[in-house]
Amino acid sequence: MIAVSDLLRGRSFTRVSDLSRDEWLSVLDLADELKEARAGRKPTEVLPGRTLGMIFQKPSTRTRVSFEVGIYELGGVGLHLSAGELQLGRGETVRDTATVLSRYLDAIMIRTFAQADVDELARHASIPVVNGLTDDEHPCQALADVMTIRERLGRLEGVRVAYVGDGNNVCVSLGAAAELLGMEFVAATPPGFEPPFDSIARTNNPREAAAGADVLYTDVWTSMGQEEERARRLEAFRGFTIDAALVGLADPAAIVLHCLPAHYGEEIAEDVLYGPQSAVWDEAENRLHAQKALLALVVR
Predict the structure, then answer these.
(1) pLDDT tens digits, residue range 156-175?
(2) Looking at residue 236, what is its pLDDT?
(3) What is the number of helices (H) and of strands (E) in the chain?
(4) What dihedral angle (degrees, nearest 10) is formed by the CA atoms of 4, 5, 6, 10?
(5) 3-state secondary structure of 46
(6) Is residue 227 scored above 90 in pLDDT?
(7) Which of 16, 55, 109, 286 could pair covalently with 144 via S-S, beta carbons 3.0-4.6 A apart?
(8) What DSSP string runs through 162-173?
(9) φ and ψ at 141, to 5 degrees?
(10) Is 110 in a helix, a strand, or coil?
């Protein structure tokens, strides 16, 4: 059976900075161990009888399936809680919801719009709260991203990551994780779409960012809730596609990442996503292993 430390027991994970560098590495090490155990069909039921409530205010494929399968494989059960079906959707306060759910559940995962709602939920809950995505951050995606980078390249320290596209929640979380773990991170965005932090390098030239990169990363140009901006964004992001030409500027051993879903011909070319340098499908799978490790460490 997998041995799990009590180091993070009872802690919430609402943003990248909630964990220190050493704590991030502890999650990643356990994720590697859980992935190996799953491949060998070895038991990983370290959370028998625990229940994870999963609140969704945004659509989901990878987040829902990876968390639901993950808690099951750890020996527990996941409850899908659509916000429209909860009293939260009819005006019940976040505090009241947090207080009640803490009496029923062992942890809460929430995928929503406002980071403030996640922060308030974590403040009032007596059980761990995990951020499954907000408009500001996507820390669980960053866990899977970093796991994949280390898995493919064998290291994190000194890895050059070039993020090409919108300076959105995915960019923010990956940039913060890169800074914490000793990676070099540069965000290439059109003017006006830069990520809202100054601690990492920025450029408006995707070719400059891609030159010599170990990792090329992108995300959709139009995120959920931005549909009315689509036409303007398509024009603004012209030239920011990760295609064969851009990949050719990176290190010959570079990998390509995308958090999905993908829009072919916009932020990425289909032949790149399915090409020999793509680690996108490993990255998607690693959502499962990284989140299993996180849950195993934080749930009491």
Answers:
(1) 999 999 999 999 999 999 99
(2) 97
(3) 11, 9
(4) -60
(5) coil
(6) no
(7) 286
(8) EEES---HHHHH
(9) -65, -40
(10) strand
Task: Yes or no: say if 187 and 197 are a contact pair by the CB < 8 Å rule.
Answer: no
Quote the tokens at residue 251: 């290190």
Q: Which residues contact 121 (CB under 8 A, 6 or more apart)?
A: 94, 97, 98, 108, 110, 129
Give φ, ψ of 162 to 5 degrees: -110, 115
Q: At 126, is the pLDDT very low, low, confident or very high (cuts 50, 70, 90)?
A: very high
Whether the Cβ atoms of residue 138 and residue 116 lie closer than 8 Å to each other: no
What are the φ/ψ torsions at residue 54 (nearest 5 degrees)? -120, 105
Token digits of residue 14: 């609402």
Long-range contact pairs involving 273-280 (C-beta distance under 8 Å, separation at least 24): 275/244, 275/247, 277/247, 279/148, 279/152, 279/255, 280/256
- Rounded to an integer, what distance in angstroms lies between the CA atom of residue 212 and that of residue 134? 31
Sheet containing 107-111: order of strands: 77-82, 51-56, 107-111, 129-133
Whether the CA torsion 263, 268, 272, 278 is positive or negative: it is negative
* pTM tops 0.70, yes or no: yes
Residue 224 has pLDDT above 80, yes or no: no
Tokens representing residue 127 in the block: 């059980």
Query: Are 66 and 108 in contact, with CB atoms under 8 Å apart?
Result: no
One-letter amino acid of 62: R
Two tokens at 160? 């050059």
Tokens coding 218? 């992108």
Query: Cβ contacts of residue 35 below 8 Å, gap of 6+?
Result: 286, 289
CA distances (Å), 168 to each of 43, 48, 64, 136, 196, in order? Answer: 37, 37, 21, 7, 9
Q: What are phi and psi of 148, to 5 degrees?
A: -70, -40
For CA atoms 226, 232, 235, 236, give the dihedral sign: negative
Helix (H, G, I), strand (E, B) or coil at 132: strand
Quick one: what percent of the chain has pLDDT higher than 90?
A: 92
Distant-in-sequence, close-in-space partners of 293: CB < 8 Å, separation ≥ 6: 27, 28, 30, 31, 33, 34
Q: What residues are labeled active site?
A: 111, 138, 141, 219, 259, 287
